[in-house]
Amino acid sequence: MELKGACIVGQSGGPTSVINASVYGVIHTALKNPNITRVLGAEHGIKGVLNDRLFDMGQEDPNELALLKYTPSSALGSCRYKMADPDVDETDYKRILEIFQKYNVRYFFYNGGNDSMDTCNKISKYMQRVGYDCRVMGVPKTIDNDLYGTDHCPGYGSAAKYIATSCMEVYQDARVYDTGMVCIIEIMGRHAGWLAGAAALATAYGAGPDLVYLPEVDFDMDQFLADVERIYKERGNCMVAVSEGIHYADGSFVSEAKTSATDGFGHAQLGGLAAMLAQIVKEKLGVKVRGIELSLLQRCGAHLASETDIEEAFMAGKAAVENAAAGISDKMVGFERAYEGGHYICRTRLLNLTDVANTEKKVPLDWINENHNGVKQPFIDYVLPLIQGEPCLPKEDSLPRFARLKKVLTK
Amino acid sequence: MELKGACIVGQSGGPTSVINASVYGVIHTALKNPNITRVLGAEHGIKGVLNDRLFDMGQEDPNELALLKYTPSSALGSCRYKMADPDVDETDYKRILEIFQKYNVRYFFYNGGNDSMDTCNKISKYMQRVGYDCRVMGVPKTIDNDLYGTDHCPGYGSAAKYIATSCMEVYQDARVYDTGMVCIIEIMGRHAGWLAGAAALATAYGAGPDLVYLPEVDFDMDQFLADVERIYKERGNCMVAVSEGIHYADGSFVSEAKTSATDGFGHAQLGGLAAMLAQIVKEKLGVKVRGIELSLLQRCGAHLASETDIEEAFMAGKAAVENAAAGISDKMVGFERAYEGGHYICRTRLLNLTDVANTEKKVPLDWINENHNGVKQPFIDYVLPLIQGEPCLPKEDSLPRFARLKKVLTK
């Protein structure tokens, strides 16, 4: 079972508030492991391996490394790089093997979402095929929360907390005048509505959107306008949360659709979905509108991170190393939840990389209401434990103190 | 000097994260004052007086009132209502006098920005003219920080902190890939660049915009594109902060201008300035872009409020009541800063309402760099003390616990 050698850790895909907590879980645990001779960080994910751009993490100041827990985005750099099918083109795989051999890499940890687990899976299978002994483990990450087989994903809880808190604050602001307003908040999530649904947490706590639209169901513009008009007439204001991925019944994204109402809608790429929907509401209903896109803020808002999410992200990285050191390979660390004495607890479980790669998990349809404009209580019960806890954020003059890594390249 | 009677407090103009802290300063202090017989909150500012919609603040739960310190936006409701010149139309003033007499109102506190101080001033002068004994005090508020005669305004420090922190986080995110990006962040401030300048705090702490454009100087699109291109070529990425109020030399707002480059720019109202500038950069330089508008988030982001700002906002409300009770009228509470033993301290000072009304304070031109694309150290030194301190935010299940007022209308 004992396998001595270096490890490589890489980050891939869109960053989150806590992906660095996972990488710190890997690095911190690997640096202490007697069988792991060297801990290397890949610059920009697998591209850093291909380009032989590897940082020697052992040369970092441990105090700076510890700050990774509270530093958003991918500290090692990320990439969006689709690996070829090795049966079609083996070039990249041969290069990766060459680098693994050069540094005697026997442990490979890859931290990312769906596409990254595909990369991880392909590398794992290739190394098996060529008989190179390397333990490959996926460490999950995605604000989208759409990885298969895990109760939830590191990164989601913090983004959900950012979204819910921001909605609660905007709710206070968007109804302050004696004249009404329709406020539309655009939330990330191209194919799954986990993030947009988190806006409903704000509503559950008394200050959130009246309407929430997820991409799991078809969007109907006429029904949307009728919903907004009804709420506005009833309450004098209307707040709406929409997933960026809402689409019509024919599958076309609302954000990309040209409607006949005005040629202005063709310029949706300028301002995004929220601005476009706000404009449509303004033209159809003649009311004051405001479109707000949470944009990158929701995925890097570490100042609103969930302590639960940070600790679970760290735990996922740590579990990847511990399991690999114990002889396990070709898995992704996933989560399962339990309730002990009514209290939420989260445990790791191992999933086959093959099963995880490229499979998306969506919001269950029976968690979405009948009118397709909101979520039901099971959704709230699901997400609430994930946003809990306030981390003690390192600050310098009341501004965030993020990790400053030396990033010493291996010779 | 003793004057017994009720007081009215109202909020007006765009809300902030801490305007309720000021109103709490008024209410809390007035409720304890033996000469103030009743504390009334005007619904939607002066409109609540005109419409006889007044809440009896004495009937609120003191614990809920205390939560106002941490509740963003205007809890009593706000308005944007321009009072007529009383020499032209006395209707509103007569009505206000009628209401003041009806409830024996002898103290009037108005919490707002430039326009609100104009309202406050006009009411003060009218009451003097008709010989109705009522002490009128303005309580400053504006994230724009553009009130005349005061070192700074309550609300600014918290918005500045939100902007600087968000820029630091986005900075981490916007350079995570091995491919570069130009990221443009749009910040509030139609005529004054105090808010946009605060983005430079992020830069001073190692993770902020490369370029900052304020409305105090003319914007030149060609120079802007040259600036962005130069930085992008040098550093592989470029982050830009722009005030929504940047304008060309002829005074026209960049956000409203139609450029000849593409008819798409005519739709700037859809997505705002950031999206429009991002689009222009994309077309001219052919690089990946992202436009982010901080929108309402920056003015209601109480979860990032500055403790200094909260306490000063409270102090301003308290000082208004204490000074009025001591016989002073026709003033706005302002701030002056001092440094004792190198430490920033803030004291209140009283300004004539006449002087404050409708006068805007802009960023000094010698705090803006020679290239008109950044701010200099005096700006940083000015703003840094204002963002200090982390409030202990009341939370419920890790979400904000805002004040829930009963809002009992007077009979």
Descriptive notes:
Two copies of one chain form a homodimer. Chain A has 411 residues and is α/β, with parallel strands linked by helices. Chain A has two domains: 5-143 and 301-359 and 389-400, Rossmann fold; 156-300, Phosphofructokinase domain (Rossmann fold). Chain A is 36% helix and 18% strand. The first copy, chain A, contains 13 helices and 13 strands. In chain A, the strands form three sheets. In chain A, strands 3-2-1-4-5-10-11 form a seven-stranded mixed beta sheet, with helices on both faces. In chain A, strands 7-8-6-9 form a four-stranded parallel beta sheet, with helices on both faces. In chain A, helix 5 (114-130) links the parallel strand 4 (105-112) and strand 5. In chain A, helix 1 (19-32) packs parallel to helix 11 (307-325) and helix 6 (156-173) crosses helix 7. Chain A starts with a strand and ends in an 11-residue tail after the last strand. Residues 259-270 of chain A have low confidence and may be disordered. Chains A and B meet through helix 6, helix 9, strand 9, helix 10 and strand 12 of A and helix 6, helix 9, strand 9, helix 10 and strand 12 of B.
Structural class of chain A: alpha/beta
The main β sheet of chain A shows up as: 7 strands, mixed
Q: Which chain pair has the greatest contact?
A: A-B, 68 and 68 residues
Question: What fraction of residues of chain A sit in β-strands?
Answer: 15-25%
Span between termini of chain A: 30 Å
Mean pLDDT of chain A: 95
Total count of helical runs of at least 4 residues of chain A:
13
Q: What share of residues of chain A is helical?
A: 25-40%
Overall body shape of chain A: elongated
CATH topology of the largest domain in chain A: Rossmann fold
The low-confidence runs of chain A, each spanning 5 or more residues with pLDDT under 50, are: 259-270
CATH architecture of the largest domain in chain A: 3-Layer(aba) Sandwich
User: What is the CATH class of the largest domain in chain A?
Assistant: Alpha Beta
Number of domains of chain A: 2
Sequence of strands across the biggest β-sheet of chain A: 3-2-1-4-5-10-11
